[in-house]
Amino acid sequence: MQEDRRLAVLRAIVEDYVATEEPVGSKALVERHGLNVSPATIRNDMAALEEEGYLTQPHTSAGRVPTDKGYRLFVDRLTTVKPMSQAERRAVTTFLDGAVDLDDVVHRSVRVLAQLTRQVAVVQYPTLSRSTVRHVELVALTASRLLVVLILSTGRVEQRLVELDRELADDELGTLRSRVNLAATGEQISDAVIALNALVAGDHPASPVMSLVVETLVEAMSDHRSDERIAVGGTANLARFGDSFDSAVRPLLEALEEQVVLLKLLGEANSGGAVTVRIGAEGPYEELSSTSVVATGYGPGDALASLGIVGPTRMDYPSTMAAVRAVAKYVSRVLDEG
Amino acid sequence: MQEDRRLAVLRAIVEDYVATEEPVGSKALVERHGLNVSPATIRNDMAALEEEGYLTQPHTSAGRVPTDKGYRLFVDRLTTVKPMSQAERRAVTTFLDGAVDLDDVVHRSVRVLAQLTRQVAVVQYPTLSRSTVRHVELVALTASRLLVVLILSTGRVEQRLVELDRELADDELGTLRSRVNLAATGEQISDAVIALNALVAGDHPASPVMSLVVETLVEAMSDHRSDERIAVGGTANLARFGDSFDSAVRPLLEALEEQVVLLKLLGEANSGGAVTVRIGAEGPYEELSSTSVVATGYGPGDALASLGIVGPTRMDYPSTMAAVRAVAKYVSRVLDEG
DNA sequence: CTTGGCACTCCGGTTACCCGAGTGCCAACA
DNA sequence: TGTTGGCACTCGGGTAACCGGAGTGCCAAG
C-alpha cells in the first residue's frame, strides 16, 4: 500500500519535473495530482525515496529531483505506453514515403525524428554486412580500366576502379560479369564473399583478372568505413538546454562530431527488438552524464542498423520512446519495399 | 598622415579585440602596439573613427569595439595576407589526399576546415550541372527491367530504375548503350542533355525504349535536389561562443539545419575566384547579424560549388580567409585528379 | 596637431540583506 | 503502524547599496 503510493509519488515527481524543469516540492505535488494525503505524508515518502537513491535534493530545503536511478525505475516500471497521435503517425508515414533513395530515407528519418521528439536525432546508415547484393556491374571505361559497381539491396552503391595489366575483350567481360553475378547476386554480403572466393579458388589456373575483380569486390564488401556513416539532425534543439551550457551542451556537441562515440552509443541498442534507454552516466562516457540516449534497431529483425535520439536526462521518456519506435518501424517498412 | 594613423588604429583595435574579446582602450593600445603617440591622441582618433561609424562603445566610458563597417574596412583594405604555416599546409594536403571517394572528400574538407579555423565549416557538394559525364551504364536486371547508372566526373553516381513494356535483347542493349555513351560521355551535363534529346529526335520512328532511357537520364541530370546537399562540421566550435548564447548560437544552429539558408549564404561566394566575406547584417538574414560568413568557390574555375565557414563577426579574418582559400585550392586539385 | 591634466561616467564585482519555498522533526492522533 | 498538523530552521536567489578602476571627453598649453 505505502509501497504503491511511493511509486506513484516517484512517477508524479518525474512527470512534474520533466514538465516544469524545477525541483518539485511536497505541497505542489499533492495539489497537482489527486493524492489524497497531506504534504507531510508525501515528505516522508520522499525522504524514503531519497534514502533509496531514487531522488535527490539540489540543496537542503529545495524540492526533489529524480536521480538517474529514479529515471531508470520510471522507465522500466512506471511508464505507460503513450501512443502517438493519429496526426503524428500520418506525418511520419507521408514524410518517409516521399523518399527517393537511401540517402533521402536517412535524412528524412533524422529530420522527422528530431521534429517529433524535439531532441537531437541520430540515424546510422544501413550496415553493409546485413544487406544483400542486388547486382554487380562491370564497366569497361577503357579496354584496360574497369569500373566495378556494387549495388546493394538497401540502395547503397559502392564503386571501385580497377587497373588491368592487359586489355580485356568484350566477351571476356561478359562471362566475367555473369559468373560474378551468378555467385553474388541475391546473397547476403557474408555469403557473397564466400561464394566469390570460391569462384577464384575453383579456377585452375586462376585468371588474374578474375582474382583482381573478386579481390576488389570483397574489399568493397568488407569496407567497414562506410558502416560508420551517420546522419545527425535537430541540433537546433540543443538551444533548449538553456542552462548548463558548458556542462551539457559542449560535450554533446563534441560527441556529435565524433562518429565513433555516436556509433557506440547507438550500438548498445542493436540487440533485441525493443527500444533501449541509456540514462545519464550508465554508459562509459562521463562527460555525457547529464544526457540520455533512446535508441533502437531498424530493418529486418531490427538488425540492419540503429537510430535514436540523445537529449537531457530530464526528458519525456514515454513520448520519446514511442516516437523512436514508430520511426524505426516505418523506416524498416520503407526499406523493405524499396 | 593622421589619416594613415587612424587606419593603423582601426587595424590595431580589430586585432586586439579579436585576440582579447574585450573592448580596447586608448592606453592599452599604445602599449601593445608601437604607436609613438600619447593615449590622448589615440582618443581623438578613436572619437573620429566612431564618428565615421567604424567603431562603437558598448557603454560610455568603456573601450571601443569595431562595428560591421569597421570590420568591412579592415577586411577590404587593411588585411595583410597571412600565409598558413608549413605544417598546416601539409596537414591539409595529406588529410585530403587520403580521401577515397566524393563523399569522403567532402567530409574530410569540412573537417579540416573546421579544425583549421576553429569555426563551423560548411561544404557544398559539387553541383551536378557543372560536371561532365564520365560514363552511362545500362544494366538489365531482368529482361524488362533496366538499371540506368549515370557516372559523373566528380565521382557522383546517380541511378534510376526503368521498367520496359517489352523484353530487350542483348544486342539491342549493346547498341543502346553505345549510342547513349557516344552522345553523352565526356560532355558537360548541359550539353549532354541537348545531345541526348537530339538522339531521340533523330530517330524515325523514335524507339520507345530509347526515349524512355533518355528521358530517365535527362531527368537524373536535371535533378537539382542533389545539388542542395551540404556537409556541416565543427559545430562543437559553437561552444566557444560562450556569451550571447541565445542571440547568436540559437539562430545559427537553426540556420545550419536549414540547408536552403546555408546554400544562399554560400551561394553569394560563387562568383569571382576570390574569397568572399559577408559581415554581420550585410546579408538578408537579420538573425545572423552577429555572425560572418567566409566562403569561396572551388573546382575548375571555382564554379563547381562553394565552401566556407561561418563564425562570429569577431573573428580572425586574415587566418580564416587564408584557410578557406587553401582548402578550396586543394579540394579543387583533388577533384581534378580523381 | 599633440599632449598632459582632470573631472566624470559607468561597468562589474562584492557585500549585506531579506523573503519564501521547502524541509525535518516531533508530538498527537486513528 | 502510518498519517497529520505544527513549527523552527535552512538556504537559494533576488534586490539594493557600495566601491574601485578603467576609460572617456574636454580644455588649455606646448
Describe the structure.
Chains A, B: Keywords: Repressor, Stress response, Transcription, Transcription regulation. 2 copies of one chain form a homodimer. The first copy, chain A, is an alpha+beta fold and about 350 residues long. Helix content of chain A is about 50%, strand content about 15%. The first copy, chain A, has 12 helices and 10 strands. In chain A, a hairpin with an 8-residue loop joins β1 (about 55) and β2 (about 65). Chain A starts with a helix and ends with a helix. Chain A binds a DNA duplex (30 and 30 nucleotides) through α2 and α3.
CATH top level of the largest domain in chain A?
Answer: Alpha Beta
| Class computed from helices, strands and strand pairing of chain A | alpha+beta
Quaternary state of this entry equals homodimer
Distance N to C terminus of chain A: 53 Å
How would the global form of chain A be characterised?
elongated
For the biggest sheet of chain A, the summary is: 5 strands, antiparallel
CATH architectural name of the largest domain in chain A? 2-Layer Sandwich
> What integer value in Å does the Rg of chain A equal?
26 Å
- Number of helical segments with 4 or more residues of chain A: 12
Greatest contact pair? A-B, 27 and 28 residues
Stretches of chain A where pLDDT falls below 50 for ≥5 residues? none
The name CATH uses for the topology of the largest domain in chain A is Beta-Lactamase
Order of helices and strands of chain A: HHHEEHHHEEEEHHHEHHEEEH
Tally of extended strands of chain A? 10
Average residue pLDDT of chain A: 87
Binned, the helix content of chain A reads 40-55%
The CATH superfamily of the largest domain in chain A is identified as GAF domain
Adjacency order of strands in the biggest sheet of chain A: 7-3-10-9-8
Whole-number tally of structural domains of chain A: 3
Residue fraction in strands of chain A: 15-25%
